[in-house]
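Entry 14. Ran structure prediction on the chain below.
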Amino acid sequence: MSAQELEKTAQAMVAKGKGILAIDESFPTIKKRFDNITIESTEGNRRAYRDLLITNPGGAEYISGMILFDETMRQNTADGTPFPEALIKQGIMPGIKVDAGAKDLAGHSGEKITEGLDGLRDRLAEYRKLGAKFAKWRAVITIGDGIPGTGCIEANAHALARYAALCQEAGIVPMVEPEVLMDADNTIDRCYEVTEITLNTVFNQLYRQRVTIEHTILKTNMVISGKKCKTQAGIQEVADKTVRCLLRTVPAALPGIVFLSGGQSSQLATAHLNAMNKMHPHLPWPLSFSYGRALQDDCLKTWAGKSENLAAAQAALLHREKCNSLACLGEYTDKMEQAV
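Output, structure tokens:
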């Protein structure tokens, strides 16, 4: 893929009013999701559920791309069409999760490092042949007592940059995902501090590894209170502090930023995104979404593993996609939830 094609793909990923649907759950994660609706995580059930997500009528109006898992990249729709081909036919770009997960970082108690660089060049070449237009690599930054440390942030930023360089070499747009977790009791100000340090370090490493920013997408957390914090920041404070942090750290040349939901409820993730775009309409880059659970939860519960629930489940998914599409434009309202 030429530089022009990479740039075109990156811009299409964050096209006006569109976002990314993340359906790249690993085997352990999809098992947890299926356990919640009491169905077994078999290959057949996973294929049927992802078929539901990928073939949802009308989804292409709001979704520019989907992040797939390795298994999903190799599966087919009910009529035998390879999933990547089915997406491309709808005008949706296939993406692929390529990291091997977060593991304990030696010498850094309570901190993680994402693995998967070994053999990545060859895997990217294969994914490109299978139809992948972009890829994703997630780094995990944990807030806790005395953490994160500089060593953890720098190690993960370096791995993200090496991954991104390999993607661009292979003709695939890298989605760079440093996630500051929201699981602790930290205040929103502590999240701001860690997110700012993390993003500064990531972009410094991207520069050092000669990654072209114009051909890169950032996927990141919102600046938000930890789940266990007694004082939860309001929607406007989250929006304002997130935007301020991004303006201080993210180059204007970046084509766009997509947020992860990070455990927020479906409606709250939408409301936060909407507030950012409504109150800050003239930013250097579009702000969009790349949600997993925050788009899928209602759909998954409605489906419950039963074919007779297919249409209702797809309608639930389309509703959440539409709400977040409007949030990208600052045009979402709470009343839209009551109209379901």
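DSSP finds 13 helices and ten strands in the chain. Will compare against last week's run tomorrow.
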